[in-house]
Amino acid sequence: MANTKYLVNASAVAPLKLIALPGCEEMAKTINKYLIQFRQEISAQNTAKKDTYGYATDNYIIDVNLPRFGSGEGKGVINESVRGVDLFILVDVCNYSVTYSEFGNINHMSPDDHFQNLKRVIAAANGKAHRISVMMPFLYESRQHKRTGRESLDCALALQELVDYGVTNILTFDAHDPRVMNSIPLHGFDNFFPTYQFLKALLKTESDIQISNDHLMIISPDEGAMSRAIYFSNVLGVDMGMFYKRRDYSRIVNGKNPIVAHEFLGDSVEGKDCIVIDDMISSGGSMLDVATQLKSRGARNVYVCCTFGLFTDGLAKFDEYYEKGMIKKVITTNLIYQTPELLSRPWYSTAKMGKYMASIIDTLNHDVSINKVRDNTLKINKLLKQHGR
């Protein structure tokens, strides 16, 4: 039984329900499957919960529609009662595969469209839910997390807008800069990391990795990823290295100052496997440059672990670098949309997050400390023992 023993004698705050916005349907089905499993296990140990209304059912997903008018305008429709429920809304703002028609033109949904859908569904709930939590794995506009001039601060404004709509908890994964939570200091904001799922996927696909200080090194591709790399290196007991970016601050390309070079700080990587860990792959240029530099310094294999794989410039460059031997494996989560082309690549593996997300939802519904599922250290140590590491 996984992560349920502390819920056996805890009471749910209200009947649990889940809404999946367009593009999240498959993940919602996975979460629903695990929630059903968890509740069956808990009810078997505490039979009184079997008779608790809405506790152990065969479906936690609520049916919703988000129709569009011919002009592109839309609305949210909830097709069953949400009165008194503990409502969790799942949204993937990066799923560009979802389309809609506007004046006969087919548009792909942008993050702005997904965020507007989220607000529509919250408005359709009409304040009748006992509590509303939003699970937004890729935090909307999180790359614009600080102001450096006369510019908007979109992520902070979006968080404030959600709490003004009545959202109690905002759940996200590997926020680009979690300090954006300071924009809503009196409301719930929880940031989770898929470190355990990365290691699980890596050990499953790469059986020859030796987890020791002589054979493995954790690499931070920039100063922003340092905290992730430090935790990973400490829990595995291996050294860490770091690259820092030299940028050209005299010009802006695609909304940012272009990177001139990556400089390395750390011990020798010669003959070692290197795990590069970061929050996201956008175009992938920086990650591939880091992999090239590691290989030029004598690294044995380069593995890339990123929470979000956006691949905004396509997969051709990754195919090329894989063929050249610059990268051995790329692992990202299924928290956001993955194209069929990506899933078919020999250099790619998925860190599956459905069970973890279900465990987070189940724990919050019982009003139990979220640290019960946030701490990955015990799970990682158990995993290492199972693999004889």
Short description:
This protein has 389 residues and is of the alpha/beta class. It contains 11 helices and 16 strands.
Shape: globular
Count the helices. How many? 11
Major β-sheet, in short?
7 strands, mixed
Enter the CATH topology name of the largest domain.
Rossmann fold
Could you characterize the architecture of this molecule?
This protein has 389 residues and is of the alpha/beta class. It has two domains: 5-193 and 354-374, Rossmann fold; 195-351, Rossmann fold (3-Layer(aba) Sandwich), CATH 3.40.50. It is 31% helix and 22% strand. The chain has eleven helices and 16 strands. It has helices at residues 25-45, 111-125, 154-164, 195-205, 226-236, 285-296, 316-323, 340-343, 354-365, 371-374, 377-386; strands at residues 16-20, 64-65, 77-78, 86-90, 99-102, 105-108, 131-135, 169-173, 188-192, 216-220, 239-247, 259-265, 273-281, 301-309, 329-333, 348-351. The strands form four sheets. The chain has a seven-stranded mixed beta sheet with strand order 12-11-10-13-14-15-16, with helices on both faces. The protein has a five-stranded parallel beta sheet with strand order 1-4-7-8-9, with helices on one face. Strand 14, helix 7 and strand 15 (329-333) form a beta-alpha-beta unit. The longest helix has 21 residues, at 25-45. It is globular and about 60 Å long. It starts with 15 loop residues before the first strand and ends with a helix. The relative contact order is 0.13. The model has no long low-confidence stretch (mean pLDDT 91).
